[in-house]
Amino acid sequence: MSLSASRAIWTQSEQFGDGRAMACAVLKQAVEKFATFTSGSDFPPLWGQKDSKPILATCN
Fold first, then answer.
1. In the chain, what are the domain boundaries?
2. Is the pTM of this model over 0.90?
3. Cβ–Cβ under 8 Å, residues 6 and 12
4. What is the C-alpha to C-alpha distance for residues 6 and 26, in angstroms, rounded to an integer?
5. Do the beta carbons of residue 32 and residue 6 sit within 8 Å?
6. Cβ(48)–Cβ(23) below 8 Å
7. Residue 44 — left, alpha, or beta (φ > 0 → left; ψ -120 to 50 → alpha)?
Protein backbone atom coordinates (compact mmCIF):
# COMPACT_ATOMS: atom_id res chain seq x y z
CA MET A 1 0.00 0.00 0.00
CA SER A 2 2.80 2.43 0.80
CA LEU A 3 4.34 2.20 -2.67
CA SER A 4 0.99 2.82 -4.35
CA ALA A 5 0.23 5.68 -1.98
CA SER A 6 3.58 7.33 -2.64
CA ARG A 7 2.99 7.18 -6.40
CA ALA A 8 -0.40 8.84 -5.97
CA ILE A 9 0.91 11.52 -3.61
CA TRP A 10 3.91 12.22 -5.91
CA THR A 11 1.61 13.71 -8.54
CA GLN A 12 -0.48 15.83 -6.17
CA SER A 13 0.07 19.53 -5.77
CA GLU A 14 2.18 20.70 -2.83
CA GLN A 15 -0.41 23.45 -2.33
CA PHE A 16 -2.79 20.75 -1.10
CA GLY A 17 -0.29 19.37 1.40
CA ASP A 18 0.96 16.56 -0.82
CA GLY A 19 3.71 16.41 -3.39
CA ARG A 20 7.19 15.06 -3.66
CA ALA A 21 8.32 15.60 -0.05
CA MET A 22 5.35 13.72 1.36
CA ALA A 23 5.65 11.00 -1.28
CA CYS A 24 9.29 10.46 -0.37
CA ALA A 25 8.37 9.94 3.28
CA VAL A 26 5.73 7.35 2.36
CA LEU A 27 8.12 5.69 -0.10
CA LYS A 28 10.75 5.40 2.62
CA GLN A 29 8.19 3.52 4.72
CA ALA A 30 7.52 1.19 1.78
CA VAL A 31 11.22 0.37 1.41
CA GLU A 32 11.46 -0.32 5.15
CA LYS A 33 8.42 -2.60 5.00
CA PHE A 34 9.87 -4.54 2.07
CA ALA A 35 13.10 -5.03 4.05
CA THR A 36 11.31 -6.59 7.03
CA PHE A 37 8.51 -8.44 5.20
CA THR A 38 8.22 -12.18 5.64
CA SER A 39 5.63 -14.35 3.98
CA GLY A 40 4.46 -17.89 4.50
CA SER A 41 3.52 -18.09 0.83
CA ASP A 42 5.54 -19.61 -1.99
CA PHE A 43 4.64 -16.52 -4.02
CA PRO A 44 5.09 -13.50 -1.73
CA PRO A 45 3.73 -10.15 -2.95
CA LEU A 46 7.01 -8.36 -3.63
CA TRP A 47 5.91 -6.80 -6.92
CA GLY A 48 7.07 -3.28 -6.01
CA GLN A 49 10.28 -4.03 -4.19
CA LYS A 50 12.64 -3.46 -7.12
CA ASP A 51 10.75 -0.35 -8.23
CA SER A 52 10.79 1.39 -4.87
CA LYS A 53 14.53 1.80 -4.31
CA PRO A 54 15.32 3.64 -7.59
CA ILE A 55 12.38 5.97 -7.03
CA LEU A 56 13.54 6.63 -3.45
CA ALA A 57 17.00 7.49 -4.80
CA THR A 58 15.48 10.43 -6.68
CA CYS A 59 14.23 11.90 -3.40
CA ASN A 60 17.66 13.05 -2.27
1. 2-36+47-57
2. no
3. no
4. 5
5. no
6. no
7. beta
